[in-house]
Each structure stands twice: as C-alpha cells, then as structure tokens.
Specification:
The complex is a heterodimer.
Chain A lengths: L7 H29 L3 H6 L13 H8 L2 H33 L5 H9 L10 H10 L6 H25 L3 H9 L4 H12 L1 H17 L2 H6 L8 H5 L10 H35 L1
Helix pairs in contact in A: 1-13, 3-13, 4-7, 4-10, 7-10, 8-9, 10-13
Chain B lengths: L3 E10 L2 E11 L4 E5 L6 H9 L6 E6 L2 E2 L10 E4 L11 H11 L4 H14 L15 H14 L4 E5 L7 H18 L2 E6 L2 H7 L2 E6 L2 E6 L1 H6 L4 H6 L6 E4 L9 E4 L4 E4 L5 E10 L3 E8 L3 E8 L9 E6 L4 E4 L8
Parallel strand pairs in B: 3-8, 3-9, 6-7, 7-8
Antiparallel strand pairs in B: 1-2, 1-4, 4-5, 9-10, 11-12, 12-18, 13-17, 14-15, 14-17, 15-16
Helix pairs in contact in B: 2-3, 2-4, 3-4
Classes of the chains: A mainly alpha, B alpha+beta.
C-alpha cells in the first residue's frame, strides 16, 4: 500500500474497531476454554480470571475422558459431519453442473426448486422426518443423521456452486468434448478443480451447523451408540446438579475438530480469493 | 480428405433465430474465414460444424459423411479457442496428447506426433511446463499444437488471436498462414477482424444477422462487393456512403473507398472542411465535412499536411465508385 492511501489516525481507527470486534467475538470461547481448566470453586469464585495455580484443575477433562464413551461420541460426530459434507459437496456440485451447463426444459424452475430449501427450515418437517425414519427403520442410526444433514446442506450448496460453475470457461469444457472426454471426466477433472475455492466456502457453511446441531441427534439418534458430542455433553447437564467442569471441558474439546477442518478449508478459501484477484 | 458441406443449416435458441439457412461448400485444403460483426452467428456456425451445438435443421457433411448426429470427438476435427482452453492441470505435452490418448492411439505414435508439432511451433523447451507457466502467445501455440497433433480433416479456429496483443497477433497470424501452407489442411477460421480475414483467407464468407452476405476471395470482395454491407465491412478505413439524392444521382447510395478519393486545395467535386487529420506515417487519414457529401474519410498515401478548419476539395475516382439500390444491392 502506498503512503498516499494510508493515514495514521485512519489506520488506528480501523484497527481499534477490528480488535474490539475480535475481542467480543472471542470472549465466550475464551471464557469456556479458560474455565474448563479450573476447579469448581474456581469457576464460581472468579469466573472471569484465567486459571491460577490455586484454581487450576483438570478434573473436567479427566471426567470427560474417563467417561469412556466420549471418544465414541466424538467419532460419531466426525463420521456424521464428514459423510454429510462429502455427500453435500458431491451431489451439490453435480446438480449445480447440470443446472449451469445444460439447457433443458424447466431448468430455471428446477434451480428455484432446489434452492427453495434455503428459505424453509428443515426442522419444520421434523415430525414427518421422524415418521419416515421410523418407517424405514433408520431411527438410532448415523445414516439417518447423514441423510437429514445432506438434505439440509444441499440447497445452499446447489445455489452457490451453480453461480460459480457458470463462470468456468465454456471453451475449456468444449475443448474437452472435442478431445473425447466424457461429461463425467469434464466435471471431475476440469470443472471441479476450478471451483475448489467455492467448494471450500460451501464446506465451511455446511459443516459448522452440522457439528453443532443438537436437534436431530436428540430426536433421530439419541441412543448411547449413536450419540454425538453435543448430545453427549448434555449428559453432564442434570436437572438438579450440573457438572460444569465436565461440560466446559467437553465443549472445549468439541471446538477442536471444527477448528482443524476450518483451517484446512480456509487455506483453500484464501488461495481462491487471491488467485481470482490477480488473474 | 477434408471437404465440408453445409446444407441449409438453421439454428434457433428458443424464438431467436441465429442462423437463417446457411449453405456453404468448402473444398479440400481451403482456408475459409467467417467474418462478420458480433452477433452475426459466425461462432454459432463454427460450433455447429464442431458438433458442440446441434443445428435446428439442415445437414453438416464432412468428407461426404453426414456428421449431424456424430459427437465432436468423432468428427475428425480439431478446434482452437479464443481463450486457449488448455487443461490447467496437465503439462504442455499431456495437453497436446490427451485427445489421442482418449482415442486409444499407441504411446509411441503420440510421442512422434507431439515431436513433429512441437518442433513446428518451437514448443520443445516448454513440453514439461504447465499452462500457468506460459505467456499468452505460448499458450495459443500450445492450443494450435494440440489441434495439429490430432491430424484432423478440419481445423476450426474460433477468434484465436483476439486475446493476444497487437505484436503477437501479427506473429501468430503469420504462423497460422505458414501452418496452412505446410499442412495443406482445410481450415475454417472465425474472426470479427477484417484484416485477419483479408490476410489469411483463400475464401471469405461474410455473415450478417444469420445470413451469408457474400462468399468470395479477398480481392473479389474488395473490388466487387455484392451489397452495401459487404462494401462497408471489408476495407479499412470504412467505405464512405453518400446519399445519392444529395448528389443528384439516381442510385439510393453512392459508395467510395477513402483511398479512392483525391484532395486538392483549389478545386474538386466536393468542397469540405477538415475536421480531423490522423498522421500514420505511411498514410494520412483526413476527415472532411463536405457540403454535399456529409462527413467523409479520405486516405492519402504518404504525408499530407492539413490543419483542422482548412478548406479542401475531394474528388472520387469515377471508375471506383459504387452505386447501391434501395435494397442495398450493387447496381451494375
């Protein structure tokens, strides 16, 4: 940046605003992580101070880990999230390719129909979904969750990806056709790598609500075998006694996988932004 | 090998008719250029020939075989695109070889053909690079190489020079002309630039609004345009059109090329004032606002000093003046 477009007060002002916002956004997360390392007395005595040698306690984590099933809950959450993400991206991209690439009767209508789900919350259909799952014997399976989350994520994925697919050069696809590539090869080898940044965007938007969801695991798969992390953390939330150490520790642990997945995708996001800017 | 017949091809996108019945014959080894303003249907026609677009009606015949229902890869064609359209994830070598590999050509044969094409286009040093590591001109040469390697019956070029800068455009134009001479292959070339059309073509097809206006050799189109549109489109600067009635002529419009006008400061047919002068060194373009003829362009070979505001007389060469009827056609 040249000095002509930079003035000290403006820089300070911008940074002050951004730093304030960052602090506000991070405050709850830091509070949770900080308190997860404190003893019960420490949490209630001085909730806003970081752990001191006196209040430091790993009791929360030992409880969570000691409760053997927790690793299992983690596994469930991970399986559900990754599988749903995979299907959302695969089917979303395929539908988006069809909508943006081929001219057929009812193309626009089909696009609108597929995007409708953005406006109508899937939870409105919970009763029907539950009946469906009971009828098909999928209650208390991870498959049920994966199916529901795939359905939930598809509308936004189709909507965003079809916009990006329209920008992929027609010449490139036609060159592939003249060279004898099949439509599937054109889709997987030529088009998908070029829309990778937008796939990352969709992945992030899809992944976080799935990981954090409590509603569908509680209704469709509350069994011990299929519990997800968010549902598992409820274990420590009693009607009369609540094990705050364990809840905070469980929540802190639950943040980690999302952070890791986000870090993977966000690198794609940034690369996408810069490569688009200088081309 | 390499003839093409287009029989009454029509193409409509919904209610919009883009091609309104095209008939064209291309013989083996010809270099044919489709030229016309944007939106005239020239690219659509090329895509119909390639099979990337189905025609609404009519037949496309390559080498005597009706290919109207044949997929692009089986038509024996190769195409070079305006935006190069190289596969970003493959090296230059693999870009050139992919089509052959898909067709099941033996690896040794692919190697051999890539070797010939890359030496022809001096691409040998770049064979292991990816498209992102090449300049625009190199990329377009790779795209041309990818077409050469396939040894097609028909080369199709879709505005291949439009994305290159002026100097590269001239070089690549020369390279394409040499390529045509060496391969003696049939080539079909789409452009909106009449200079490319004039310099490359054996035969120019002038298209306008989905119809063929005229087919002919470059000089034929220049010397005897069939109608007002072709007369205005071929030649640069553009032909001057003057309302016949203002000159007391029977023809609707009188056309005269800027280079077929002479100027004199003292006397002549059309008196006018200099509006603007463009000095190009080799020639000078004068814009004159004439009392009788309106705003006209005069092209003078060599240097000619004329200040804006000066009075000049322009005189058309009567042997090289065109007369157009009310329907735009030339009157003999």
């Amino acid at each position: 940046m040249s000095t002509a477009t930079r003035s000290l007060p403006r820089t300070i002002g911008a940074h002050a605003i951004l730093l304030t916002y960052t602090a506000i956004a991070l405050f709850p997360v830091i509070l949770v992580i900080m308190n997860s390392f404190k003893s019960r007395a420490g949490i209630f005595g001085a909730p806003l101070t970081p752990p001191t040698p006196k209040t430091f306690d790993l009791i929360g984590y030992t409880t969570v880990i000691g409760q053997g099933d927790f690793i299992h809950y983690f596994q469930n959450s991970l399986v559900v999230t990754v599988a749903s993400l995979f299907f959302v991206l695969l089917f979303g991209a395929m539908a988006a390719f069809a909508l943006s690439e081929y001219r057929f009767r009812g193309n626009t209508l089909m696009g609108l129909y597929l995007a409708l789900g953005i406006m109508i919350p899937i939870r409105l259909g919970t009763v029907a979904i539950l009946q469906l799952m009971v009828a098909s014997g999928l209650v208390n399976t991870l498959t049920a969750l994966i199916l529901v989350y795939t359905a939930q994520g598809l509308p936004l994925a189709v909507f965003i990806l079809s916009e990006f697919m329209k920008q992929v050069s027609d010449d490139l696809k036609n060159a592939g056709r003249i060279d004898g590539l099949s439509e599937y090869t054109i889709f997987f080898r030529l088009v998908l790598p070029l829309v990778r940044p937008s796939m990352a965007t969709v992945a992030v938007f899809t992944m976080i609500p799935i990981w954090n969801d409590l509603w569908f695991p509680l209704i469709l798969a509350p069994s011990e075998e299929t519990k997800t992390v968010t549902l598992g953390a409820q274990l420590f939330l009693g009607q009369f006694v609540t094990n705050w150490n364990a809840i905070l520790a469980a929540l802190s642990l639950a943040i980690m996988p999302v952070l890791i997945l986000y870090a993977i995708f966000s690198r794609q996001l940034i690369r996408g932004i810069t490569s688009g800017a200088v081309k | 090998m390499g003839s093409l017949n287009i029989e009454n091809v029509k193409k409509a996108f919904g209610p919009v008719e883009v091609l309104k019945g095209i008939n064209l014959e291309v013989t083996d080894g010809e270099f044919v250029v489709f030229v016309g303003p944007s939106g005239c249907g020239k690219s659509t026609l090329l895509r119909v020939i390639a099979g990337l677009e189905d025609s609404t009606s009519g037949r496309v015949v390559i080498d005597g075989a009706d290919v109207s229902a044949t997929p692009p890869a089986k038509r024996g064609i190769a195409m070079v695109f305006q935006t190069y359209a190289l596969y970003p994830h493959l090296t230059v070598k693999n870009n050139m070889g992919l089509g052959l590999k898909q067709a099941g050509t033996p690896a040794a044969e692919i190697e051999r053909r890539i070797g010939i094409a890359s030496s022809m286009l001096s691409l040998e040093p770049y064979l292991e690079r990816r498209p992102a590591e090449l300049s625009g001109g190199q990329r377009q040469r790779v795209a041309i190489g990818r077409a050469v390697v396939r040894e097609p019956k028909l080369f199709l070029f879709d505005e291949p020079l439009s994305n290159l800068d002026a100097a590269l455009r001239v070089n690549t134009r020369l390279e394409i002309a040499q390529l045509h001479r060496r391969l003696k292959a049939t080539m079909i070339y789409v452009t909106h630039d009449q200079v490319e059309a004039m310099t490359l073509a054996d035969k120019i097809v002038v298209l306008n609004a989905g119809r063929i206006e005229q087919i002919g050799g470059p000089m034929e189109l220049y010397n005897s345009p069939a109608n007002e549109f072709v007369a205005g489109f071929i030649g640069s600067p553009k032909m001057n059109f003057v309302d016949g009635a203002r000159l007391g002529e029977t023809a609707k419009t009188i056309g005269v090329r800027p280079e077929h006008l002479t100027v004199d400061p003292k006397s002549g047919a059309w008196k006018g004032t200099v509006v603007h002068a463009e000095h190009l060194g080799a020639d000078t373009n004068l814009y004159l606002d004439c009392e009788k003829a309106g705003l006209i362009t005069v092209r003078i070979f060599g240097v000619y000093d004329a200040e804006p505001g000066a009075t000049l007389y322009a005189t058309p060469d009567p042997a090289k003046t065109y007369r157009f009827g009310a329907d735009g056609k030339v009157l003999k």
